[in-house]
């Protein structure tokens, strides 16, 4: 039968007193860029200033975000489909204008 102090000797033999310098970026590189900055910003969630990404938004942008956030899934999908259709129509219009420009020779480079 093992002595009661035998377990303590085993545990103390597993302890490491090595000091690791966690400040070195070479030893502890950031695995995902931006995670450390994000974590630091979340430590103090009660702040008076808006997040960095909101600093460049205008009131109109914020209202649109609120509007989109309040939509149901079906309404949001309808909005996305509308944007896709608009992008397609703009692509068609751009194609017509490029063809028109080609026929009018306004896209030709000047000869030197």
TrEMBL record:
Highest taxon in the source lineage: Eukaryota
Pfam families named among the record's database cross-references: LIN52
Example GO BP: regulation of DNA-templated transcription
This protein's GO CC annotations: DRM complex
Family of the protein in this entry: Belongs to the lin-52 family.
Record protein name field: Protein lin-52 homolog
Organism the protein comes from: Amphiprion percula (Orange clownfish)
């Amino acid at each position: 039968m093992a002595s009661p102090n035998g377990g303590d000797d085993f545990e103390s033999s597993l302890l490491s007193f090595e000091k690791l310098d966690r400040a070195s970026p070479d030893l502890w590189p950031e695995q995902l860029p931006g995670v450390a900055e994000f974590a630091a910003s979340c430590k103090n969630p009660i702040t008076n200033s808006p997040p960095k990404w909101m600093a460049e938004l205008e009131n109109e942008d914020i209202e649109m975000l609120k509007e989109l956030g309040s939509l149901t899934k079906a309404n949001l999908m309808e909005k996305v489909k509308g944007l896709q259709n608009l992008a397609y129509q703009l692509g068609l219009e751009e194609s017509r204008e490029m063809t028109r420009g080609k026929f009018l020779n306004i896209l030709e480079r000047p000869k030197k």
